[in-house]
Design brief:
The protein has a single domain (about 10-90, about 100-265), classed as Creatine Amidinohydrolase (Alpha-Beta Complex), CATH 3.90.230. Helices cover about 30% and strands about 25% of the residues. It has helices at about 10-30, 40-55, 125-145, 150-165, 260-265; strands at about 55, 75-80, 80-85, 100-105, 110-120, 170, 175-180, 185-190, 205-210, 215, 220-225, 230, 240, 245-250, 250-255. Helix 1 (about 10-30) packs antiparallel against helix 2. The protein binds 2-amino-4-trifluoromethylsulfanyl-butyric acid and cobalt (II) ion. Cobalt (II) ion (CO) binds next to loops.
C-alpha cells in the first residue's frame, strides 16, 4: 500500500497519548469560551496545556516548509461563517457565536488531530442542529470503518448521514480528512462524500483523521487574504467536527476522544477496540 504509513501498536499508544492532550485542550477551551473572551486567549490556553505536557503543536508554523505563510497559532478557531483555519487573535466572542476549535498535538513524534464545534451561550435552533448533524455524520463515518473495508466507506457513511436530513446542508469537497501519524497530514485523503468501496484498504496500523465540514448553505469555501481562513462563499454558518481514529483487531479506537469512543461506539453497536497498555 504505497504512501500509507502503518503504525506499530506502540506507535498507536503514543498517538493515544497525543489524542488525550487534544481532548484535554478541547475540554478546557470549551469551558473557557464566553462572551468577551478572545480567540487569542483560547489559543494561549491551548499553548499552556501543551507546555504542561511537554507536547508539541501540529499546527504552529505549518506551511513554512513549502513557502506558505507559516500558521501562527496552535489552534484554528473558526467562528460563524468561517469553516476552517480561522486564525486566533483579538476577536472577542459574543453570545450566539458558532465556534469550531481545531487542534493538533505531537507526543514523541506522533500526532493527534481533532475539532469540536460549540456555541457561545445559546445557539439558534438551526446552528445547534447543524452541529448535531455534523457530529452525527462524524460518528456515522467512524462507525463505518472496519478491517478489510475501504477508506471511502467512511466518506459514503458521512455523506449519507447528512443527506438523510430533511434540511439542506452544504458539504465542503475541497477539504478532506487524512492519514495521520508521524506527520499530521498523510495519505490517504478521507473525503466527506463519495461512493463506498474505494481507496486504500483499512488495515491494522492505519490511522485516519475523519473531519466533516458542513454548512447551512453553500458547499463552496473561499480563502481570505490572510491566506488561511476559509469562509463560506454565501456567508452561511459552518461547522467542523473531527477525530483521529484507528482500527484494531478488536474494533475501533477513537484516539482523540476522552473515552476512546467507547460510549458513542456502543450506541451504534460497533465494537470498541483499544490496545492494552
Ligand atoms: N487540523 C487541520 C486538519 O484537520 C489542519 C490545520 S491547518 C494548520 O487538517 F495550518 F493549522 F495546521
Ligand atoms: Co485534520
Amino acid at each position: 500500500m504505497s504512501g500509507v504509513e502503518l503504525k506499530t501498536p506502540d506507535q498507536l499508544r503514543t498517538m493515544r497519548r497525543a489524542g488525550l492532550v487534544v481532548a484535554e485542550v478541547h475540554r478546557a477551551v470549551r469551558e473557557a469560551a464566553a462572551p468577551g473572551v478572545t480567540t487569542g486567549e483560547l489559543d494561549q490556553l491551548a499553548r499552556d496545556i501543551l507546555a504542561r505536557h511537554g507536547a508539541g503543536s501540529s499546527f504552529l508554523n505549518y506551511g513554512a516548509a513549502w513557502g506558505y505563510p507559516p500558521y501562527p497559532g496552535v489552534t484554528c478557531i473558526s467562528v460563524n461563517e468561517e469553516v476552517v483555519h480561522g486564525i486566533p487573535g483579538p476577536r472577542e466572542l459574543v453570545a450566539g457565536d458558532l465556534v469550531s476549535v481545531d487542534f493538533g498535538a505531537i507526543v514523541d513524534g506522533f500526532h493527534g488531530d481533532a475539532a469540536i464545534t460549540f456555541g457561545v451561550g445559546e445557539l439558534s435552533e438551526a446552528d445547534q442542529r447543524l452541529s448535531d448533524v455534523t457530529l452525527e455524520s462524524l460518528w456515522a463515518g467512524i462507525a463505518a470503518a472496519h478491517l478489510g473495508g475501504r477508506v471511502t466507506d467512511i466518506s459514503h457513511a458521512i455523506e449519507k448521514s447528512i443527506r438523510a436530513r430533511r434540511e439542506h446542508y452544504g458539504i465542503l469537497k475541497d477539504y478532506t480528512g487524512h492519514g495521520i501519524g508521524s506527520e499530521m497530514h498523510q495519505a490517504p485523503d478521507v473525503p466527506n462524500v463519495g461512493r463506498p468501496g474505494r481507496g486504500p484498504r483499512i488495515v491494522e496500523g492505519l490511522a485516519l483523521a475523519v473531519e466533516p465540514m458542513v454548512t447551512l448553505g453553500s458547499a463552496v469555501g473561499v480563502t481570505l487574504d490572510d491566506e488561511w481562513t476559509v469562509v463560506t462563499k454565501d456567508g452561511s454558518r459552518a461547522c467542523h467536527w473531527e477525530h483521529t481514529i484507528t482500527v484494531t483487531p478488536k474494533g475501533l479506537w477513537v484516539l482523540t476522544a476522552e473515552d476512546g469512543g467507547e460510549a458513542e461506539l456502543a450506541a451504534r453497536g460497533v465494537p470498541f477496540g483499544p490496545l492494552a497498555d
